[in-house]
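Retro notes, structure queue

What went well: the backlog is down to a handful. What didn't: a couple of records were mislabeled last round, so from now on we paste the full input next to the output in the thread. Example, using Phytoene dehydrogenase family protein from Brevundimonas abyssalis TAR-001:
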Amino acid sequence: MTQHYDAVVIGAGAGGMCAAARLTVAGRSVLLIDENDRVGGRATSFEKEGFILNVGAIAIERGGIFDDTFQLAGVPLDIREPNPATVFRIDGKTLDVSKGGWAFLLGGFTKQAAKIGTKFADARAGDLPEARITTAEWLSGLTKNTTVHRLFRNLCAAIFAVNADELPARAFLVYFGTKGAFKRFGFCPRGTIGLWNDLADALREKGAEIRLETRASRINIEEGVARSVTFTANGTEETVTADVVISNAGPLATIGLVGPEAFGPDYVAEANRVVRPAANIVIDFASREALIDAPSLVTFGDTKRLCNIVDMTMTCPEMAPVGWRLYKAYAVPIPALGDFDAEHEIEASLAELHSEYPQSVHARILNIKVMRDGWPAQRSCAGYDMDQATPVANLWNVGDAVKTYGSGGTEACAETARIVSAAALAMLEPAR
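Corresponding output:
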């Protein structure tokens, strides 16, 4: 007989894992499937040559909904926070602005520092620019200073995987003015996958079923309702029924699983118009000598593509063999929301890395990954998100293409999971 679940969750990325966690903790029967051989989606880890390399997110934000999800599941967060959290590298010097804030950082480069600071205060009060104005355009109305523009560009790149001329200023100001703004974050010494494995183990103990290397092929709709999910594992096709279905595959992939006719032309047209996948370039390399003098995430003020770098081993020495330093650098191509020459962008990013840290020329390159297209850094740029709900009443999307406005990273995915799981539980309650 066909198995039945209260909920089937497609995709074990941050949104899918957090949604499955909340539903399982609420006592619902949950099946979580993912086509990959590990949990975590685009925010996971793998081992190479004795190094633990994070994929996607460099770090995990603390103090918000992500933390709350793990607490609900009774899972301790194995995360170490660097102190200070963030520093900036400008003209070859490292600046710690943890106490001085924006005014201290910008005051050395532009006379408009106070005015820029006022704009952040205005954002907190709800005074925001028009949605069509980009961060670069907004900033140009305040200062022409090149260093300030590159700092803001690299903040856009580090958080949202886009350039300042691609990100709406409204989204930037909402994030840095009213959201968490990545003030607290940390690293798991076992790699980010260690956190997901901990959560997965807890969910299994609580009764959830997690199937990896299992590819969803169809969400079956009958009379406007998602009735079942068909998937393939080990060459065998299987169909299970469910009361609710949650997709962490992204809106466009979800449309492919359902079929456009079930959603209707308006929703399909909106998804194709709104969703804008963002790209970045991840560079993992190792050195026996220290290149960075702080355990913090270093954001650059003199680069066009390279946005930040961190020495993972200053906080988590377990991530590298003894005697080695493990570095992770992020770059965002030009453009990040369109087609680009990957080889050229990699070369330009490496050139900037070598310019900032000449010793890195002799480093051991472990991995260079361009995250784009079907496996992007963000499924949709902040400010260009779909709603979590779909035209099918018991089918929702979670993840980084259905974020709340101005959100970013794994924290944004966890937030979508909280919203969707609450809606799913409200629908399931009458049936119980």
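Agreed that this is the format going forward. Reviewer comment attached to the example: The domain at 277-371 is CATH 3.90.660.50 (Polyamine Oxidase; Chain A, domain 2).
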